[in-house]
Amino acid sequence: MTLALLGFSKQLLPRLLRHICLVLLFFNVGLIRWQGTV
After folding, report:
1. Per-position pLDDT tens, the chain of length 38
2. What are the TM regions of this chain, as residue ranges (predicted)?
3. Rounded distance, CA 18 to CA 24, Å?
4. What region, left, alpha or beta, does residue 28 occupy, with left being phi > 0 and alpha being psi -120 to 50 degrees?
């Protein structure tokens, strides 16, 4: 059970981290543009 979970998390974690990085990147760009217009 634990071994299967570990393999699953190893497969899922890079995808999750990439998704979080993309969200943060878009958020930062949006924030900078919003501050530039105000």
Report:
1. 688 888 888 889 999 999 999 999 999 999 999 988 87
2. 16-34
3. 10
4. alpha
